[in-house]
Each structure stands twice: as C-alpha cells, then as structure tokens.
Amino acid sequence: VMLAPVLPQGKRLTRAVYHVRGELAILAAFLTLPHNIYFGRTYFVRLVCSPRSLTGLTFTAALCSAVMLLLLLPLTVTSFKNVRKRMRAGDWKRLQRFSYVFYGLLYLHVMLVFYPHLNGNWLYTVKAVFYTVLFGGYGSLRVRKYLKLKKSGRHVIRSWSTGGVIVTAAASIFFAAVGITGRETGCEKSEPDMEA
C-alpha cells in the first residue's frame, strides 16, 4: 500500500497494485487491530491513567500509536469504494495525504520500540536497519517523484505528504546514528516487551 505511489507509472505491477490498493489498506488496518488491542490493554491504559509509570521512549511510542489509530480510522473508512465515490475527489485526496504522516509515525513507533534492544542485540539491529532502508528508500523515492511532478528541484515543499517524508527521513538519520553509537537515553527502566 505504502509503496504503490512510488512504483513506475504505467507498468503492469503498478496497475495491479493500484487496482487493489484500497482493499489492501482495509486489510492492513484490520490486521493492526489485534496488535493494538493486545498492547493497548497495557500501554493505552497507562498512557491515560498513569503516564508517569512509562519511560520516555515507551510513552512516546504509545502516544505515536494512539495518534496512528486516530489517523487510521478515517483513512480506512474512506478506502471503501462506496464511501470514496460519495466524496469529492479533491477532499478524498487531501484526506489520504495524512497517510504519509501515518507512515512517518509508524517508523518512529517501531524505532522507539526497538531502541532499548539495539545495544548488543544483533536481531533488533538487523530489524532496525531493514526498517530504515525500507522507509528511507520509500522517502527518497517519494521526494523524487514529488519533485519530478513539480518539474523543479527548487520548488518549496509545503504539502503534508512531503512533510511526513521529511520527518521520516530525519528520524531515519537520527536512529541510524543512535544505533551505531549505542548511546544511552537515561530511560532504561524495564518495560514489558512491546513487540508481538
């Protein structure tokens, strides 16, 4: 779903992905619900009732997750074709641009969950590198396509979508640097493992 806009235009694979993109988005949204229910029973409750019981990293990861759920609801509902047909094309497109903010928060959430495990755990380091390459590659391709569509490398970037890409790129650089240096955050209080 995320990679569809950066695939080469006019190719058979691109047309096939775009044809089922809405359905894939709906499926992905429903697949995230068990994850959020399972971890939300602990982290969302603590986020609301006792936020000081969470470390800085865990608080931020839970907050990112809560914001993503708020974004996911309208993005999922408007992915249904019968809902999309009732909306003006411009309104639908503007709303769907929030998916780029969602992607940036998703990367940030994953890295916040992985960060406490990076020092000395090669599996988490490999996962962090994989996500950084995936999201960083996506971000660079998305910016390239944006600039190509605007036909000017000097165009001022103002859209929400490109802002989400910039946030993701900045987070990628930060977490890659932190992972390499293994710096401590001062928030290492033990928490239940957030990864399912």
Description of the structure:
- The chain is an all-alpha fold.
- The protein contains 8 helices and no strands.
- Helix 3 runs antiparallel to helix 6, helix 6 runs parallel beside helix 8 and helix 7 packs antiparallel against helix 8.
- The longest helix is centred in the first third of the chain and has 29 residues.
- It is globular and about 50 Å long.
- About 11% of the residues have low confidence.
Outline the fold blueprint.
Blueprint: H1 12-19, H2 21-49, H3 56-77, H4 81-85, H5 89-96, H6 98-114, H7 122-150, H8 160-181
The end-to-end distance, rounded to whole angstroms, is: 22 Å
Average pLDDT rating: 77
Radius of gyration over alpha carbons?
18 Å
Counting DSSP H or I runs of 4 or more residues, the number of helices is: 8
Tell me the major beta sheet: none
Strand percentage: under 5%
Structural class: mainly alpha
N-to-C SSE series?
HHHHHHHH
Q: Could you give the count of β-strands?
A: 0
Give the fraction of residues assigned to helices. over 70%
Shape call: globular
Give start-end ranges of low-pLDDT stretches: 153-158, 177-191
Oligomeric state of this protein: single chain
